Amino acid sequence: MPVGVLVLNVGSSSLKAALLEPEAAAAPAARSHALWQGQVALPGPQALAEQLEHWLAPALEPWWPRIRAVGHRVVHGGERFRTATRLTAATLQELEALNPLAPLHNPPALAAIHWLRRRRPALPQWACFDTAFHAGLPPEAYSYALPAAWRAGGCRRYGFHGLSHQHLADVAAQRWREQGRSGQPRLISCHLGAGCSLAAVRDGRSIDTSMGFTPLEGLVMARRSGSIDPGLLLHLQRRGLSLEELEHGLNRSSGLRGLSGLSGDWQELQAAAAAGHAGAQLALAVFRHRLLAGIGAMAASLGGVDLIGLTGGIGSHDTALLGDLQQALGWLGPLQWLQVDADEERLIARQVQQAIALSDPADPASGAAAG
Q1: Residue 233 contacts by C-beta under 8 Å, 6 or more apart in sequence?
Q2: pLDDT digits over 213-225, tens only?
Q3: Spatial distance between the Cα atoms of 298 and 308, rounded to a whole number of angstroms
Q4: Quick check: 223 and 257 in contact, CB under 8 A?
Q5: Alpha carbon of 341 to those of 171, 283, 346: distances in Å?
Q6: For residues 233 and 282, what is the distance between their CA atoms, to the nearest angstrom?
Q7: Angle, nearest 10°, between helix axes 266-274 and 278-302?
Q8: What are the residue numbers of the active site?
Q9: Cβ(369)–Cβ(85) under 8 Å?
Q10: What single-letter DSSP state applies at residue 145?
Q11: Do 273 and 280 form a contact (C-beta atoms < 8 A)?
């Protein structure tokens, strides 16, 4: 009988895949013991189709009999999609309409979903959303100070990296209990990688976050600008830049890459900065400044901090950054620090298994979409 959940995590620059058994996805703090897993780079928009056909399809060939369902990371679920959702023709049509809100992330995820539907049409597929963890943000946190008609049209803050923030929050809560403490910690979750965001987590729920209507808002990222004055965009439009040029510049040529004039790669910039490269030094300094300011803002939203957790490719591995933050944020008072490897795949598998159990424990192909 098929027992495993295949997880596909299509990012803007990589494709991750893992086949997890139920017990391997159960405990949030444990490392994944996957039946199979792999990752490949996606150097350009055309690379996804090639990697699906020439890497993923052959790799999965021996495993199809073990696969019970497939879970996909989808970045933007809009206001409607707040839980793991069974993918049908109708839900896919709704998700296609959200592509403009996350143009770097949603289209590749949907391309992988359609590819798998063509290859295995009877295999149940589910979507798990990065926006879902932030779906309970209070109105004062998600509302922009915009005209009512604009806000009624969906112009609000959604927040992203929710799967990563939720995984870190689950691990932090488990560690908190293991220390014999009651309740859950007031947590600032820092996802620091090619994309970067913060979340203020109280009682296991996101109450504030740094990203907004799109994944462009907030911290400085590898190639994304983070927050800038919207008046600057109006200025650039008046100077003749097209919407396409603005979108490409903000998403592809800004952030660490734009500041340094060299690269968006964290380790490369650290080496260049140590060698005296002025652009790399500026990029790291701006990144640090915005990160410290953002953490301070999250602390204010929480009314105090018990634990700060770092995850993502930078956050979970850079011990020098951890030490710098500990020293710079000493004014917050006594608190705990935690570095956690990102494991969105385990969380997606767990969410899919829970959704299947709610629909029909005996039949993964049954049940309506949970919206």
Answers
A1: 246
A2: 999 999 999 999 9
A3: 10
A4: yes
A5: 10, 24, 11
A6: 22
A7: 120
A8: 130
A9: yes
A10: S
A11: yes
Burial class (CB in 10 A: 0-12, 13-18, 19+), 82: middle
Conformational region of residue 66, where left means phi above 0, alpha means psi within -120 to 50, and beta covers everything else: alpha
Q: Which pairs from 103-107 meet CB under 8 Å and 24+ separation?
A: 103/247, 103/251, 104/12, 104/215, 104/251, 105/10, 105/11, 105/12, 105/74, 105/75, 105/76, 105/215, 106/74, 106/75, 106/76
pLDDT value for 42: 85
Question: Apex CA 85: angle with CA 226 and CA 1, to 5°?
Answer: 125
Decide: 294 and 218 in contact? Cβ < 8 Å: yes
Structure tokens at 162: 């929710």
Interatomic CA distance for residues 312 and 308, integer angstroms: 14
The encoded tokens of residue 118 equal: 């063509």
**Residue 36 three-state SS:** strand
Q: Cite the beta strand spans of 61-113 per DSSP E.
A: 67-74, 85-86
Q: Tokens at residue 220, please?
A: 């400085």
Angstrom distance (rounded) from CA 19 to CA 32: 10
Q: What is the pTM of this model?
A: 0.91
Task: Tell me which amino acid residue 105 is.
Answer: H
Q: What domains are there in the chain, each with its CATH number?
A: 4-129+344-359 (3.30.420.40), 162-339 (3.30.420.40)
* Residue 93 tokens, joined: 């049509």
The string of pLDDT tens digits covering residues 300-355 is 999 999 999 999 999 999 999 999 999 999 999 999 999 999 989 999 999 999 99
Residue type, 136: G
Region of residue 262 (left: phi > 0; alpha: psi -120 to 50; beta: else):
alpha
- Joined together, the tokens standing for residue 265 give 């790669």
Lookup: tokens for 53:
């056909």
